[in-house]
Amino acid sequence: MSSLLRPCLGLAVGAGMYVVSVAACIFILVVYRILEQIEKVFLKSAEQKIVRLKVNKIITDGTPYRACFRDYRVHISDEFLRYDYTQGTTIINFMVRSKDDTDFLGLFERIHSMGDILSLTLTNEVNN
To answer: What's the gap between Cα 60 and its chain centre?
Structure first.
């Protein structure tokens, strides 16, 4: 539940407005259920994946990589960076959503052609 809704419901219960609180809670649950169904319809074939790049340099700007994902219609929902200054490498984990028909091989070839890529992996879970 939203961080704004919890205190409001708590205040209503504290004020003795039990019927309003229960009605509001039921309404919120129904709206969440409807939104969940809408999300399933629009993202029915979208799946969360992790694309991990290991680059042979310290990356200060990930814009070129993000542009590649955008060109292949892959949505980046989050991004994590890990720098190894002793080896001069960067590991970038992109949490992405994509359709089933996404051409990841083409995407990987394009990213690899940018140079300095040591490895590219695609998984459904985060491993260190």
So the answer is: 21
Mean pLDDT per 10-residue section of the chain, whose length is 128 residues:
71 89 90 85 72 92 91 90 93 88 89 91 72
125 to 39, 40, 51, 55, 99: CA distances (angstroms)? 22, 21, 10, 20, 17
Q: Are 94 and 107 in contact (CB under 8 A)?
A: no
Global pTM exceeds 0.90: no
Question: In this structure, which long-range contacts are made by residues 27-35, counting pairs with CB atoms below 8 Å and at least 24 apart in sequence?
Answer: 28/1
Strands (DSSP E) found in the chain: 47-55, 75-84, 89-98, 117-123
Determine the 3-state secondary structure of 19 from DSSP.
Answer: helix
In this structure, the strands spanning 75-84 and 89-98 are: antiparallel
